[in-house]
Amino acid sequence: REFLELVADLAALAVDQARRFEMLRAGDQERRELKARARRQERMAAVGEMAVRLAEEVRNPLASIAGFARRAHRDMSESDPHREYLEVVIREAERLEKRLRESLELAAPEPPTLKLENLNALVQETLKDYGETLVRRRIRLLKKLAPDLPQLLLDSQRLRRVLQNILERSLDLVAVGGRIRVESRKSGEFVVVEIAHDGLHRPGDLLDELFVPFRSGRAGAGAGGLSVAQQLVHEHGGEIRLKSDGEWNTVIAITLPVPDNQDRRKVGAERREIRRDRRAGKNGG
């Protein structure tokens, strides 16, 4: 019997040592991952700072190019064969101006201007801007907007920009004749807006890297737009997530909280105090 107890003690000791060894190994792995993440963030910060400086230097020459192109376009006759080339220059210059503006706003954001808004109305207004593109490319729009959404305290211009950036990325990836789905719903204490498409999903893409500012690639502009969208949604106390779901290769979900929505009129310290009081009330109850 003493022998069996000794064996059991030795086995328990071996199991404990193995568990401690595994914990040490996991700790070392976590430290290595944290160091790698810190190095990556430092590199991204350096790249971001350089990109902001470049954007500031490019902005004025680009505005001059766009301004002179618009002026030449106005003075050109409708039958001039070069007119369509100028239209391409103007369109691309405006696109670049928008990206530069977003990059600078991402680096030094202004406080949002908040008021009660109907989120479904913002979605509808944004979709109207892309009606011609959808028809021209024969893209089928599947729209399902819940009628019972509560009004939320939002910056309408910034939320419209979020929707625009996501839709532009979706249109960039959807083939002619493809599908885009836009849906809104209330889920518990949150309002959710999903924009999904059945465009090709590029293998090797890490979903979280789609939100890294200044990312390059075939759809680099769209990915950069997602980083801007993510920051704007965070300003509203919400989250933005990206996933795949069956026939929809990419689903981008914007989640905005309904409780405490009014508290965003208040400054940060005052909002935190309100939340602490509410949590204390719940715990006391």
From TrEMBL:
PROSITE patterns: HIS_KIN. SMART domains: HATPase_c, HisKA. Signal peptide: none annotated. Residues 262-276 have a biased composition (Basic and acidic residues). Residues 262-285 are annotated as: Disordered. Pfam families: HATPase_c, HisKA. GO terms for molecular function: ATP binding; phosphorelay sensor kinase activity. This is Histidine kinase domain-containing protein. It comes from Eiseniibacteriota bacterium. The lineage of its organism: Bacteria, Candidatus Eiseniibacteriota.
